[in-house]
Amino acid sequence: xxxxxxxxxxxxxxxxxxxxxxxxxxxxxxxxxxxxxxxxxxxxxxxxxxxxxxxxxxxxxxxxxxxxxxxxxxxxxxxxxxxxxxxxxxxxxxxxxxxxxxxxxxxxxxxxxxxxxxxxxxxxxxxxxxxxxxxxxxxxxxxxxxxxxxxxxxxxxxxxxxxxxxxxxxxxxxxxxxxxxxxxxxxxxxxxxxxxxxxxxxxxxxxxxxxxxxxxxxxxxxxxxxxxxxxxxxxxxxxxxxxxxxxxxxxxxxxxxxxxxxxxxxxxxx
Length: 270
What we know:
Elements: H1 2-26, H2 43-49, H3 52-84, H4 89-104, H5 107-124, H6 133-158, H7 162-169, H8 174-203, H9 206-211, H10 219-227, H11 234-269
Helix pairs in contact: 1-11, 2-11, 3-6, 3-8, 4-6, 6-8, 7-8, 8-11
């Protein structure tokens, strides 16, 4: 059984990571071929950094992802604190259902519904262009928010409820007790939610496609427009850089979780 399980795991890993490995290798290929590796070269990386349109799309994507991640993390943390304090089980169940809707709803439905809402509101106020950076930012916050809530809420539930009460008994105000006691306790969940929101916003195409304006272009939309003609190998180089960026964020998230687990183990040992 152990041998069969190892073979099965190896096959799964092969299917998951073989495309990424091919992408990484051929991003350093000297020629455009995807079947013959003609030699190691940084040619496509140089072309990438000389492509102003692609770099502009990367800059727009990073600005959008950082803005959406920061705002959704603040809002999601506040929402998680509010949901955690609910005592009525019916209201709590309703809030949980509302939180899960953006995650379970198909992206195309979310994108179309948000587009219609933005166009309706824009025409209501007589705006000439209803879709722009701000509409895309609101859309990204909408689908990132539930993921932040679901990362922070378990940390609040695991926290000892007497800690903020003890801080207030020692002279802290409710706000200072929240900042000095609650925030440090749930910080791993906040960091994980922030990283998830950033990666989700960075990767999104469908919702962005329906809510983007003419004066703003993200990287996924630029790559999609390029597929109508041809995708040059410099996109492989860009994908490689993005892959290692996301990998670094995941490692950071895992390190934050492991650093939280070590003090708990020490407390149990004592």
